[in-house]
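User: Sequence in, structure out. Go.
Assistant: Echoing your sequence, followed by the structure tokens.
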Amino acid sequence: MGALPVYCWRLAPDGYATFRQLRALGLRPGGQPVVAQLERPRKRRGPLVAYLYRVDLAKPVRPMTPARRAALAKANTARRICPTCRRDAGYRIPVSLGMCTPCAFPEQPERT
């Protein structure tokens, strides 16, 4: 990706947009390649990078079908079930823990 033009944060030319900006406009990249990137400097770490796409080549977002909606609901429900206690946690289980919070951090006996 060394051949891509690099722009400073907030200085991208008109006609380019990030993935999130395209989504806000109801568009998607539609298979087009990344045409440029934005870099936002940070202290003590490498810069944040955002890839830019051409707005004129973007396509409309595909509509949500009933089958896709059902599949998405089923997947989100599965992410809420704790594999240890098999209960619905009421939130998506963090991948870092792999189980609900009460299973990951059982009550510690009080110290005296």
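User: And one key feature?
Assistant: Helices lie at 19-24, 66-80, 101-104.
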